[in-house]
Every structure is written in C-alpha cells, then in structure tokens.
Amino acid sequence: MTVLCHGTARQCVSGTTRLPRAIFSCVSSGMTGLLLRAALFALLALAALNETEIASLLFADPSRGVAQAYSLTLRSLTWFAGAFVVIAALEIFFWKGVVARLARHPVPALLKSVVALIVLAITATFVISFVFNRDVTAVWATSGVLGIVLGFALRNMIQDIFTGIALNLDGSIREGDWITLHHRDFTAEQYGKMLDIGWRVCRGQLENNNVVIVPNGMLGMMAITNFAHSDHVSRLQTEITIDFDVPPERARRILLAGATAAATEKGILADPPPAVLIGEPGEHGVCYIVRFWGKVDQRSPSALRDAVMTHLLRQLHIAGLTPALPKEDIFIDRRPKRLLDHAGDGDRLAILSRTDIFAGALEKPELVEMAKKSAIRQFAPGDALVRQGEDGTSLFVVAEGILDVHIEGPDGRPLKVGHILAGEIFGEMSLLTGAPRSATVTASTGVVAYEITRDLFETILNRRPGIAEEISRLVARRQAATAGAASTQPPADVESQEKLLKQRILDGMAKVFAGLARTSPPGPAVQA
Questions:
Q1: What is the pTM of this model?
Q2: H/E element holding 4?
Q3: Would you list the domain boundaries of the chain?
Q4: DSSP 3-state of 212
C-alpha cells in the first residue's frame, strides 16, 4: 500500500513515530484494566477457597441461611469475575492483536459485544450447574419455550440483530465506508458514510450532512455499492446531448478536453484517463457518455459529476456550441378536410366524381350541376329504397352505409343476392331505359344516398347528347363485368356481350329521352 505524506520530512517522521506510541498507550490502558480484573478475580477466588473459615468468622451459625447466601454469592461473583477477565483478555490479545493485525481494520464493536455476551451466557450456565447444583437441561428447555414465544413476538428485532452480526462478520460494510444505498422505496440513490452498525440499526451520514438510521434487516435486503472495496476509487459517468450537425470527432475532442480539464478539481483523477463514448441518437441529438474516475471519499458522486459537467459546458461555450435544444420540423399546408358535409355542393361533387360512370362521361360543369340539383335521401335500417317490379325514374349514389339486394325466389320469398357499398350506384338501368326495378334494395344500416332524377339527367343529356354513347358504354362494361365474374364465359364472349348490351342501352335511352338523336339502329328490348 502506498502512503502519501504531505508536509515536511520531520512531520512525516513525527507522525510515523507517534503511531506505535498511540498503540502502546492503548494497549497499556487495556492491560491495566485486565490486571485490575485479574486481581479482583484472584481475591474472590481466594475468598471462595477459604469460605468456610471466613463464614465462621462472620456468622455465629455458619449453617444458617445468611451464611449459605454468602457462600452462593461469593462463588457466583468468582465465576463472573473470571468471565470478565476472559473478556478483557480477548479484547487485548485477540481483538486488538490477532484479528486487528489480520483484518487490518478495527474490529466492529457489535462483534465484540456478541462474543462477550456468549462468554457471560456460558458463565451463567456454569453458575447454575456448579454453584446452585441445578440441572441445566431443565433450564435450557424452559428457556427454549420462552425463546420461541419471544422470537415470534420480536421477529423483526431479532432479524435486525442477526443481520447486524452477519454484516460485522463478513466485513462487506464497515464503519467509515462510503456507500450508496439502492432501494425501491427511495426516490433516488442515497450516498453517504457509514458511521456505525449497532445491535438493531445502522447509522449513515448522507452527503447533505443528515444522518439516516436504517434497521439492519432492511439494510440486508438492499443493494449496496461499497466504494471502500476499491479504495474509494470509482468510475462515474455523465451524459450530454449534442446537436446532429456537430461532427462526432469534433464533439469527442471538445468533451474530452472538458473531462481532462476537470482532473484539476478535488477528487477527480487524471489516471485512469477519462473517455468519451457515443450513445444512442435521441429526439434532439446524439447522446455522448463522458466517463471519468474519482475519489468518492473526498467528494460525493453528485459533486464530482457537477464539477465535470461545469468543465464540459465551459468547453462547449468556448467552441461556440451548446447542448442540443428541443426542435421539430413544421410543414405548413392546408388543413385536410376531415368531415364530409352532405349539404355542401363541394362534398357532393367529390362523391359523384368518384363514381366511374359519371367521372368517365360527364365534364366538371355537368357534375357540378348534378351535385347541386341531386336530392339527399336518408334511410333507416330496413327501409326499402326500391322494390322489384316497380317503375323507376331515378338512380341512387350511396354516400354512407350498406344496402342489401334481394330478388323474389322460386318459392316467392325474398332471396338475398348481394349488397351495395358506399361509393357505388344502383338503379341506372331504370333511369336510362325505363325498365322496371330488377331487385329490391333495402338499407342494412343507416344510409345516406344522393338521388338523381330522370328530369335532371335529361336536362344534361339534351344539352350534350353525345354523352349517351359514353354512358351506355360504361354501364354496359360494368354490367358485363359483373355478369362475367359470375360465369365461366371466355373473354371474347364477355366482350361481345358488352357490345350487345351497349346497343340495347342506347335503344332504350332513345325511347325514354325524346330529344336524344339516335346514333344506331334499335336493338332488342332490354330488361333491367
């Protein structure tokens, strides 16, 4: 072990020579106490050996009770005086001699008290057996039952006592050690100096100079960092976040300069040297971990971190940098529309523009007119929008909800054949060709739909008759695709079916809309 002497050589020599003198003084005082106890034991032992002669001189009738009490007291005192001689001898030759030399630190007072208590208990057993001539077995049995009762009642106190004994025996924590207590009930780690470990509690002085008293049982269940096991030299670390724009090599250089400069502070070591590691990138920047070594018996860990952080911030300030600040990118744009308003023309136009028939055949002014003049219809679950076999003069665009499609089965009962979702249309064949409704459509949930009447459609058609060709093609393609998906016809047959269906739709439109100029010869009648 290296011993550092501060001051002049004379002071070092003087301090070195004072140490044996202090030890000799301590041993001398202890030896004096031992000799006095030994003299008292010898005097009592001599009196006990000659108790008959002494009793005959002191008492007129040595056989009476007073004389017997004198005899029992004298012999008991002799035994206990011998016990105190043994305790004093252990203190001088064993605790302060052998154990102190091997352990190289003072023996805990609690351990010496436990051994002294054991010596006294053994002495009491000998007194009961040899002085009072009592059977020790009965005494121990009675004390065993009493011990069980007391043990159950005082189990926490007993746990504290035995934990204190264990802590003193294993030497993991000693008086004067600097430790950190970790416990789930603490809001933060408690750092301080262990003052003493008593029978039931231990006392520690925190870095704020407050004294905390912890039961030994609770101390035994804590995680404890003992800095004394490493000569109070501990590696500590602190973290600082630097902006992403700062190159890592520059950040390392600046932070390492700050950590190295902090070695001039009390308690911070220059060897081992400090180190700077790159941690995880965070929300505001890159986290850098600054590790350094310090003497925690000179300054508390929080004080050491404070000193290092002071130098780190000073170096950053000199370099024109600061720790990363909270930041976020802001993109300014129009707020997207989050709720469609069916009463607004713009929202109705948006929904009509999503239907393939209208979007592919009508121009925007025509869609705007249709959106303005379409009727908003609302239906409750179970309401029928159209019924099979009825005449129809309108089509519906489903804005919200789901509808069920039924046809009349062979037995006359409704047979469900499909459903219609939001964004789809139905009833176009009745509107365009005048065919009766081919199915019954009922609301499965609450439904909002836009109804487009034949009069409205005819107004747009009369203004631009050419859209009839495109609408008939789109409707024919839609119906042919639906029919082809449910059959096994080859693609060529589906295409020919689409052309035939398109011509039928045009012929039907020519009959329904009187102002429509016929562009092709009439085809067979069409059934919706």
A1: 0.41
A2: none
A3: 21-153, 169-229, 233-318, 345-512
A4: strand
CB count within 10 Å of CB 152 equals 9
Residue 368 to residue 354: CA distance in whole angstroms: 13
Q: What is the pLDDT of residue 105?
A: 57
- Rounded to whole angstroms, what are the CA distances from 125 to 48, 69, 236, 299? 19, 19, 55, 51
111 by DSSP, 3-state: which? helix
CB of 367 closer than 8 Å to CB of 352:
yes
Place of tokens 């007073």: 66
Give which of 420, 457, 461 is closest to 442, Cα–Cα.
Answer: 420
Average pLDDT over residues 155-174: 74
DSSP codes joined into one string, 275-287? EEEEEEE-SSSEE
Q: What is the rounded CA–CA span in Å between residue 161 and residue 163?
A: 5
Helix (H, G, I), strand (E, B) or coil at 55: helix
Q: State how far the Cα of 171 lies from the Cα of 178, in Å rounded to an integer.
A: 14
Q: Measured between alpha carbons, how far is 452 from 467 in angstroms, rounded to an integer?
A: 16
Any idea which of 17-26, 216-225, 438-447 has the lowest mean pLDDT? 17-26
| Percentages of the chain per state (helix, strand, coil), in multiples of 5 | 50, 20, 30
Backbone angles phi, psi at 419, to 5 degrees: -145, 160
Q: What pLDDT does 253 receive? A: 92
| CATH architecture of the domain formed by 169-229 | Roll (2.30)
Average pLDDT of span 284-299? 91
Q: Which fold has domain 345-512?
A: Jelly Rolls (2.60.120)
Q: How many Cβ atoms from other residues are within 10 Å of residue 465's Cβ? A: 15
Average pLDDT, whole number, for the chain? 80
Domain 233-318: assigned CATH number: 3.30.70.100
- Write out the two tokens for 196: 């003493």
Within a 10 A sphere around the Cβ of 100, how many other Cβ atoms?
A: 14
